[in-house]
Fold this sequence. Notes:
With 322 residues, this protein is mainly β. Helix content is 10%, strand content 52%. It has helices at residues 53-56, 58-63, 301-321, and strands at residues 3-9, 15-16, 21-30, 34-36, 39-49, 69-79, 82-84, 87-96, 109-110, 114-124, 133-141, 158-162, 179-185, 189-191, 196-205, 209-223, 228-242, 250-255, 266-267, 271-283, 288-298. Strands 2, 5, 6, 9, 10 and 11 form a six-stranded mixed beta sheet that branches. The longest helix is centred in the last third of the chain and has 21 residues, at 301-321. 23% of the residues are buried. The model is unreliable at 146-153, 301-316 and 318-322 (pLDDT under 50).
Amino acid sequence: xxxxxxxxxxxxxxxxxxxxxxxxxxxxxxxxxxxxxxxxxxxxxxxxxxxxxxxxxxxxxxxxxxxxxxxxxxxxxxxxxxxxxxxxxxxxxxxxxxxxxxxxxxxxxxxxxxxxxxxxxxxxxxxxxxxxxxxxxxxxxxxxxxxxxxxxxxxxxxxxxxxxxxxxxxxxxxxxxxxxxxxxxxxxxxxxxxxxxxxxxxxxxxxxxxxxxxxxxxxxxxxxxxxxxxxxxxxxxxxxxxxxxxxxxxxxxxxxxxxxxxxxxxxxxxxxxxxxxxxxxxxxxxxxxxxxxxxxxxxxxxxxxxxxxxxxxxxxxxxxxx
Length: 322
């Protein structure tokens, strides 16, 4: 009497845009005829928020989980009460991907305190003596490439220099060794599908260096009637230099953004998702220095293309004049 339930989407990558049709099949397998009280298909998308216990207390964080923000939610009756025939049964479906009211469809994002998720769920209702059968499948929402709602930002190279005098939040400045670290980030306005690039140069250092690392950080802010929290957590950490690296040598920076754990920078009335990059230099005695760079992420191709084309034309005009 067991029912094997599965959901398969037509798109293998499971990536959709607002206004698309989510099409697929409900796959049922059973050894004999099985009675049911209806088959239902639900599409839902929501923003799940969680207050940090660090800011509001452990009990309050457990009891006052912020109510999810519903972006999509509707249910279709796939089949009325009846019997599922023995063998393999395929039920095709199509669901329009339209937001609830005037709410936008944010891109899929898996964070620590903010999570944006979209699901298709199938439920087979059975009598009170038998257990209901259900299956969920997550699909991914991305912004359309030609949708440019964000305000255009100027892409420009960011140069930096790190010295003992430029450091902040230092307790004993006399214990810091003498050093000079310079470099650049090619842009702090980044497209999700393209890497963060730049370089770092150890000009000189009084003590040996153990490691040079690049850390990607998410900064999630949840604000509501129950409380307010802002937390920074690490997404990934990559080592770009090992051991006592040569002075005067340009070390390339090349960081790829992990898709599900990053999203376009968001700033809404209920929550914010922002991103930062930390350049970390660890000395041989495990003393480390950090330089922080807030970055803006976007998936808008046209927006970034316009920026790059504009920069190219300016450089081209400058070459012609000279």
